[in-house]
Amino acid sequence: MFGKRTLSTGTLILLLALVMTACVAPQAAPAGEQAAPSGEQAQAGGGKLEVFSWWTSGGEAAALQALFDVYSARYPNVEIINATVAGGGGSAARPVLQTRLAGGDVPDTWQVHPGYELLGQYVEPGYVEPVTSLYQEEGWEAVVPEALRAMMTKDGELYQVTVGVHRGNGFWYNKKLLAENGIEIGATLSVDEFFAIAEQLKAAGVTPLCVGDSGIWASAQLFENTLLGVIGPERYNGLWDGSVRFDEPDVKQAMEVYGRMLDYQNDDHAALSWDQAVKKLMDGGCAFNSMGDWAYGEFVNAGKVDNEDFGWVSHPGTDGSFMIVADGFVLGNGAPNRENTINWLRVIGGKEAQEAFNPLKGSICARTDCDRAKFGPYHNWSMDSFAKDALVPTVVHGSAAPADFQQALNDAVTVFVVDKNVDAFANALVAAAQSSGFGR
Amino acid sequence: MTTASTDSTPAVRTTPVETRRWRLSETMQTVLLLLPSIVALAVFVYVFISFTFWVSLSNWRTLKVDLSLREPLFATYGELFAMARWQADLRNTFVFTVFFIAFAVTLGLTLAVMLDRHLAGHHIFRNIFLFPYALSFVVTGVVWRWIFNPETGLNLLFELLGVNYLLAQIGAGPLRPGWITDPTVVAQVNGILATVLPGAESWQVRWGIPLAMIPVAIAATWQLSGFVMALYLGGMATISEEVREAARIDGASEFQIYHRVIIPMLRPVTISVVVILLHVSLKIFDLVYTMAGVGPGFATDVPAIFVFEQMFKATRYNLGSAAAIIMLVLVALVIVPYLASTLKEES
């Protein structure tokens, strides 16, 4: 009935119409979306709250849920949107968050580590709002240690509410295996003591040290802890403000010690993840493992008993220091549900939420007044350390230095593990610190 | 959507049909029909490539967007090529590409010839060989990670089969390779390169064959040789039986038929296969990331992992973009001559 040309013209016009409407439609949608929540929020105490994190594994997810439960008990009408992205250490979540921030789609609140990650990545570009008034209203300045507050402060304003603190410089050991070899560990362990024991174990055919560096950060963390142990907390802190260089003699000595420790590590370190290394220790495959206290959860889940199957001490030489690996939340600048977010931060900074969260997460409260009876022997030990020791920032978990230095450290460690070249290692870190903007 | 189309459709029907006017607008019709995809291509491919290139020249190295140009202009590229890690990545890509293509083409062609012989059950085997291609690279990576784990995989099998016992009997050491955890680089050619290329002695990377890369090439071969086989089988199906008959009458053996007749006739297929495999190997990410990661001393790191880590872990957008642009150039070096020759043949 219609000619071929008429048909094709018809198709053409239809196609064009499709394209044009397709172009118009998405523009209209966001406006509608934005209108909806603000309208809902006008109703007292209602609305939504989007919490962005990478807590998806068993204990972490349960701990996050505990925070939600405390919040919901107080604000039952608020609908919580649990925006988690799976992936250890936020490896998958961070790219998503970065994309959202760059695109102006700001979550109400998201998980963050204090120190550089907070101040450099989020505060400086203006992605978050200060929460200093919350600290004043709730009296948190009296219970949150000053060194931790300093890691969350820029130009006199506080920007984060920390919910839990891990101790990064843990040194775990298989107590039974050591006992079989006639070794008992005291309350502290020095670097020399460690090497004496390691030599003894090696002679007896036991692998002294387990490392699982298929994710290289685990070996970088071994270096970070060793560095702290050899040069001490003051010099360690100096590295991050540029007053100490990475090629100074004591730092190079720490690199040598790290290299010597690697001589005692398991052959299959590159094939294991950090938790498989802990598992290997439990199974008697080696004696020691240097890891933050998230390793404690692995021992508990495997049914191991504190001070019977396994024990702990500060990483050699780091007694008197507490390597802070803390998690907290921020107030997003332009958060769609600002009021609900402020209430969220008020809740998670409080004692009730932190006492519910931390036993499940395997960390301790970011405040010094939590009920000690709610925590086991390890965490009580960690709380003592938190209250009296020098608090230092971790570089491996993003607190001490910018992300590009963190990556450069991982890269330098990847090479060092193979060639053990101290000078090249030191030079690489000096260059990275300069390029990153804090080294001289 | 519906409103727009109902509005416009009656307008077409009422327009009187004039042949001459329609003929004039034929070019316009073509342009208009192609316009949507041209616009989409322009925006989603070329605009973004240009943007990536701009970023690679910029100062953007934190989460804060900074598109101001860096002084001197190509400083980021200089920095990139001075990095030991990037040098290792280029070496690894080269080694991986050579091994992977050699393995995959050889195995794929062998399988195709065998199936082409119409042996019993060749239908079943054709599907079996093609199955790995249906898996995602991530799955392949995880499985082969277990196989090439020095504690649990092949080495355990060697132990169970008594290989090491036999080796001990003849006085040889145990066979216990580190596979993907082996940082050794064999056949180092830094010395030779230094005599040929000026400035090569300052390279920080050991040029040679990182042993850990070979298991990765094997895993990639396992996944893609079935695909290569399918392409070759397709090519062989187009060669008529008369050609083979003629060769037989001329007294060619079965080996000679393949060696002298069939395989030379499959040259266009071979070129396509190599080009497809090349761009797979230049862009490979997921298989390596899940199977071996960056490897000890960057023994298994590849450019795509570098780009990902610099962009999203280190937030060094300029450095990551520079690496991405170099990857694009490498792929273009392969694809553009291929496309050019194909276009020439068509016209």
Query: Based on DSSP secondary structure assignment, what is the total number of beta strands of chain A?
Result: 13
Element string of chain B (H = helix, E = strand): HHHHHHHHHEHEHHHHHHH
Order of helices and strands of chain A: HEHEHEHEHHEEEEHHHHHEHEEEHHHEHH
Return the CATH topology of the largest domain in chain B.
MetI-like fold
Assign a percent range to the helix content of chain B: over 70%
Write down the CATH topology of the largest domain in chain A: D-Maltodextrin-Binding Protein, domain 2
**What integer is the average pLDDT of chain B?**
87
Oligomeric state, counting identical vs distinct chains: heterodimer
Give the full name of the CATH homologous superfamily of the largest domain in chain A. Periplasmic binding protein-like II
What top-tier CATH class of the largest domain in chain B fits best? Mainly Alpha
Offer a quick outline of the entry.
Chain A is an alpha/beta fold and 440 residues long. Chain A is built from 17 helices and 13 strands.
